[in-house]
Amino acid sequence: MAEQNWLDQVRQGARTFLAKDQVPGMAVAIAEQGETLLAEGFGYRDQAAGLPVTADTVFGVASVTKSVTALAIMQLQDAGRLSTADPVTRWLPEFRGPQPEWVQGITVHHLLTHTSGLPGMRALFHARAGSIARDPNRERLGLVADPQSIRLIRTYTELMELMAETDYTLLGPPGAMFNYSNEGFALLQGIIERASDRPFLEYMQKKVLQPLGMARSTFLSADLERLDPVTELYASQVVEGRPVVFHAPVWWDVGEIYTNGSLKSTVLDLLRYLEVYRTGGISGQSRLLSQEAVRQMITPHVTLPTGRQYGYGLEIQRDYHGVTLVGHGGAIKGVSASVLMALEPGLSTVTLCNLSGLSPEQVTLGSINLRLGLPWETQRRVYPAYSMDSDQLFTYEGFYRSDEGEGARVYMSPDGLTVESGGIARLARPCGPDQVLLIETGAAVRFMRGADGGITGLFTGFRFIPRRHG
Q1: 145 Cβ partners below 8 Å, 6+ apart?
Q2: What is the rounded distance in angstroms from the CA atom of residue 357 to the CA atom of residue 335?
Q3: How many domains does the chain have?
Q4: Can you give the residue range of the structural domain that contains 397?
Q5: CB 29 within 8 A of CB 349
Q6: What are the φ/ψ torsions at residue 258 (nearest 5 degrees)?
């Protein structure tokens, strides 16, 4: 496919995505073998003022931050300052939790791969609650954050204190089960600071952002005033079963904890960052990581119940139409982000949006699909038809909710098995043993069984959500 032709198709796909999902604005960038082929804005960074998105517009990237955190850990391992095999308690002796014998076995590797056994928790919400409390839209978003009733924390040391006082149960011994843990990545900040003998922000500025030339990237909302243009933030509210988009300008920070999702950046800065993985550790004139460290980061260390695989702060998919996909997404109020690479052809893609609740991977993956000669809408995974009788489907009915706030109601409707989440009900079809596919979104849901054979919860996306009784 001629270069201009496929890039024009990318632009059209981006515009379609923008219109279909009512996205106020987004930026898209593509590089191949280190050469930027496309870096453009679509829609508005400020809808009311009519200010357009450009390639230099700063967006939040949310959990894309996790791979940057993992990179810092691997730099310190390269420098001999730590090992991913180190017990977390070597660096954070204050870390406490239930099942002490399991806690003592949690390593840096387990935090990087979300296999520490930590369940979905509300602990990190206490660090975010301060900014949520200042958000005039919080009730519209279904949140109440009253500083008088919620214990506010700001640092990873205060987070550890709160976790030690929290009544929870680990999902299993270290390494036994994957469950996405923001608290786990928050703990990595303390390990980076103590192993480097530097404050986290100073370390990241000198060892990551500056060497990469990421001059328009920051972890601090306070820095945004000097980084214009910066996007406004938008959110949506479900009204009569349909999302309604509105301006929601307050950035949600996490106190002084930055490692799980606080980075703000541009599509061009992120292309510079992704070069590290394409080249085996180099971006521009700077070597950030050894080839071995990069290899560790992009190795699939764990397979999720739905078949997805995860490395260090990165999702990995080998043999996608002959190439390896490496990337991560991110989402929080006002932020939907996706970075995705096809390693063998050296293709890097970035999509940043100023509205949450989206799937910007439709654009990053769609761009890769076109370059590979595939239709834009080609999915990462194909789930075959699978037969289940109604009696088995009825066993999945119930309410599922984690302490982190993720939840779903599963029930049989006249049309079939239905999964309701966030006020939106979606039909599902069986696609494997104890697994169904949400027809509208293509997301897989795996129902998990305990030792007695009963349903203990469901796994969707990156999270285990326990079944609630009563």
Answers
A1: 129, 130, 132, 133, 135, 138
A2: 8
A3: 3
A4: 390-468
A5: yes
A6: -120, -15
Q: What is the pTM of this model?
A: 0.96
Instruction: Kindly report the CATH number assigned to the domain that includes residue 105.
Output: 3.40.710.10
How many residues in the chain? 470
Question: Any idea which residues carry the catalytic annotation?
Answer: 63
Residue the block writes with tokens 């590797």: 109
User: Has residue 243 got a pLDDT over 90?
Assistant: no
The domain boundary residue, chosen from 371, 402, 431:
371
CB atoms within 10 A of CB 294: 22
For the ranges 2-11, 91-100, 191-200, the maximum mean pLDDT occurs at 191-200
Alpha-carbon span 43 to 232, nearest angstrom: 12
Query: Does the structure show a pLDDT above 80 at 376?
Result: yes
256: amino acid identity, one letter: E
Q: What is the pLDDT of residues 384-442, one digit of tens each?
A: 889 999 999 999 999 999 999 889 999 999 999 999 997 789 999 999 999 999 998 88
Q: Which amino acid makes up residue 199?
A: P
Question: Residue 208 falls within a domain, yes or no?
Answer: no
Q: Which helix (H) or strand (E) holds 409?
A: strand 407-413
Three-class SS state of 200: helix
- The pLDDT score that the predictor gives to residue 204 is 98
